Amino acid sequence: MNPQPSPRRTGLALGSGAARGMAHIGVLKALEAGGVKVDVLSGTSFGAFIGALYAAGVGVAQMEEVARGVDWQHLAKLLDPTIPTSGLIDGRKLTRFMAEMLPARTFEELKIPLGVVATDVETGEAVVIRRGNLLEALRASVAFPGIFTPVPFGERFLIDGGLLNPVPVDVAYELGAEVVIGVCAIPEVRKRPTETFLPMEGKKEVHPSGLREFLTSQGVEKIFREILRSNPREKLTQPSPAPSPRRKPPGIFRIFAQSVAIMENQINALQLDRNEADLVIRPDLNGITLLEFNRAAEAIRAGELETRARMPEILRLVGG
């Protein structure tokens, strides 16, 4: 009888995504149900926090219970605003919240090896933290740029690791994984580039051949006369369409969050191609925004469903 192959050392790379990162809990839940043992963990931003909880021995059921039961609006009130020099929020109270859930204070106390990814805000380097103060490493990894102040770490100032490595597959390999499952909580954006402009009704486009004329004072004067002749009030006092009265511009935090999400989406695609995860789990989280922590149950369920659907592939991959 041929001996059964030993299970391969399995790494799990948990990506960034803020509230969408709750899906990682569902992924872990489904992996446990399928009998898949996680030997190595790496994480960025919220994925680093979930990874730290799991590596410290916090059960998936307990994580899910806390995520569903936390009053996230109340938690937001605990954040400590600061004078906006390098960030709007200091984040030490958020660290205390993480400390209440984490039974470990250092990497050395963890039951599973963990690598936490942050970004050096001054050099632009990705920083992988594997030893020492676990809470400070997590605080650095979740320090959303412009919102949370950078975290001093030795001689560095660290912020959100998602800026450089949203799904740290390479870190899991470096920690000794033979196969790596990446979990991406950033929905894929497939949008064609669009171009928009405000044409002047009844006027011809200015072609490059007319550039010399435009640059002469006579040409500039001619343009202004044409504008004034058409509708001076509309053209000069309202150069762009007035926004719909039913729509308000997004708030500053949403602008920050969405800007980083757009960047992370592009970086993520490049990183996943380069790092070549053996398998990538991407839950359907398109209906959940970065800040909707109150929808934890939906995010967890999405992670669980996608992982269950991929379980045959996962079991073939890890062996045993």
Quick description:
The protein is of the alpha/beta class and 320 residues long. The chain has helices at residues 23-33, 46-55, 60-69, 72-78, 92-101, 134-141, 169-174, 211-215, 217-230, 232-237, 252-275, 296-309, 311-318, and strands spanning 10-14, 40-44, 114-120, 126-129, 151-153, 156-160, 179-183, 279-281.
Question: How is this structure best described in words?
Answer:
This protein has 320 residues and is of the alpha/beta class. The radius of gyration is 25 Å and the shape is globular. The chain is built from 13 helices and eight strands.
Which terms would index this structure?
alpha/beta; 320 residues; eight-stranded mixed β-sheet; Phosphoesterase; lipid degradation; hydrolase
Topology:
Elements: E1 10-14, H1 23-33, E2 40-44, H2 46-55, H3 60-69, H4 72-78, H5 92-101, E3 114-120, E4 126-129, H6 134-141, E5 151-153, E6 156-160, H7 169-174, E7 179-183, H8 211-215, H9 217-230, H10 232-237, H11 252-275, E8 279-281, H12 296-309, H13 311-318
Parallel strand pairs: 1-2, 1-7, 2-3, 7-8
Antiparallel strand pairs: 3-4, 3-6, 5-6
Helix pairs in contact: 1-3, 1-12, 5-6
> Structural class from helices and strands?
alpha/beta
Give the strand content: 5-15%
Mean pLDDT: 77
The number of helices is 13
H and E order = EHEHHHHEEHEEHEHHHHEHH
Shape: globular
**Uncertain runs with pLDDT below 50, 5 residues or more?**
203-217, 230-240
